[in-house]
Structure prediction request, 308 residues.
Amino acid sequence: MEKLNFDTIILGGGPAGLSAAIYSSRGAASTAIVDINMFGGQPSNYLELENYPGAKLIGGFDLMEKFEQHADMFGVKKFPMQEIETIDLKNKIILTKEYEFFAKAIIIATGAQPKKLGVKGEKEFLGRGVSYCAVCDGAFYKDKIVAVVGGGNAAVEEAMYLTKFADRVYLIHRRDELRADKIVQERAFKNKKLEFIWNSTVKEIQGENLVNSIILENTKTGNFSNLKIDGIFPYIGIVPNIEKFSGQLEQDAYGFIITDETMKTSVDGVFAVGDVRKTPLRQVITAASDGAVGAVHAVKYLEEKVLI
Ligand SMILES: Cc1cc2nc3c(=O)[nH]c(=O)nc-3n(C[C@H](O)[C@H](O)[C@H](O)COP(=O)(O)OP(=O)(O)OC[C@H]3O[C@@H](n4cnc5c(N)ncnc54)[C@H](O)[C@@H]3O)c2cc1C
Prediction:
């Protein structure tokens, strides 16, 4: 197994991690970025963004390609597709199947992933009618009927995206009003293919080989009903990707890492940036901003401790 030393190792190569890589490398710290997948994070999987300042309307993949090329410009060492075995934050040792990494500072930028509904049929029909990515799987539902679960921006935007393919899209929400931004709601209410099912939760996903229906419970009346659908896309929130180091540092009740305004965590020399930390807004712009703040303070930490 190859042993590698870096001043700063960044875990996760989404917008937060790539931004941190740019600032860390530019701050003269030898910097590596390690990801369990290819780089780019969540934006690489969705179609386009229209709220990244300066970019107007840009493909998620295209924007992240620019982030990555920018990190390349400063000589960041990249380690994609790493199967992570263990992460020891206190001693700053990361073990993958191929390498043993030793760092002086670590920046955690592992992001978050969709929360599961936790109902019967969800696991069983994954990839056979259950999907968490409309952009990845939407085209399979041409002329079909699908349901999206949730009431925030992600749910409403993905539901509208699915109307490009599906005949009918039900948006199932447990309350009687959406949490999504007003501008997003206005667009959704104008969409003729979108039908709202209020005050309802999904109790079970049913089917044979593929999904063919769901059982709904009305949260007001307690009545159950059966809805015929071909696919279901839950967008009910996110959980942080902390599996490999959970419990090693201070986290909130949902597992999100607690930091101060310099992105410092409760472990000396360990910083957390982007969706994985407790933060009031999870967007590309805030992830990139966190990455910059975290990396600048990681470099400061290395200088103060005379580690570089
Ligand atoms: C459907 C959808 C639509 C969205 N639309 C928008 C939008 O229009 N505009 C906007 O600004 N934001 C949007 N967002 C939010 C935005 O994508 C996130 O806030 C942003 O990607 C967070 O960046 P991040 O770097 O913190 O995490 P991520 O983008 O999640 O990247 C995390 C990276 O860490 C890697 N990783 C995970 N675990 C490990 C591990 N143990 N070790 C190493 N690497 C690991 C992952 O493979 C990934 O590459 C959307 C999100 C979704 C889900």
The chain has a mean pLDDT of 95. The chain is about 25% helix and 30% strand. Residues 11-17, 34-37, 41-43, 46, 49, 51-52, 84, 109-112, 154, 158, 241, 244, 274-275, 282-285, 287 surround flavin-adenine dinucleotide (CB under 6 Å).
